[in-house]
Amino acid sequence: MKLITMPRLAVLAVAGAALSLSACNNKADDATEAAADQVEASADATADAIDAAADQMGGASEEAMQDQADAVRATGEAKADALEEKADAEAGHP
Which residues form the signal peptide (predicted)? Predict the structure, then answer.
C-alpha cells in the first residue's frame, strides 16, 4: 500500500505548488496546468506500481509488465502535454 500512498502525496504536493503560483497567472490556465500535472503524476504512480509488480515476476511476464508500465507513462505524458497546450491556448500563449 505504500506504493499507492506516496504517489498520492506527490500529487498533493504538485497541486499545492500549482496553487501557490495561481496569483501569477490566469486561473483557468492554472487549473488546466494543475490537471495536467495530476494526470502525469497519476500515470507515473500507476506505472511505478506496475513496475513493482513486474519486479516480482520473471522472464517474458516481467518484460510485458514493464512494457505496459512504459505505455502507461507515455499515455499520461501525452495527455498532460495536450492539457498544457490547452492551458497555453487559454492564456493566449503561443
Answer: 1-23
CA 10 to chain centre: 10
Using alpha carbons, list the distances in angstroms from residue 77 to 23, 29, 47, 88: 26, 18, 12, 16
Are the CB atoms for 46 and 72 separated by under 8 Å?
yes
CA–CA distance, 58 with 27 (Å, rounded to integer): 47
Report CA dihedral (23, 28, 31, 32) to the nearest 10 degrees.
-130
Say which DSSP state 5 is in. Answer: H
Residue 66's identity, in one-letter code, is Q
Cell 522472464, located at residue: 59
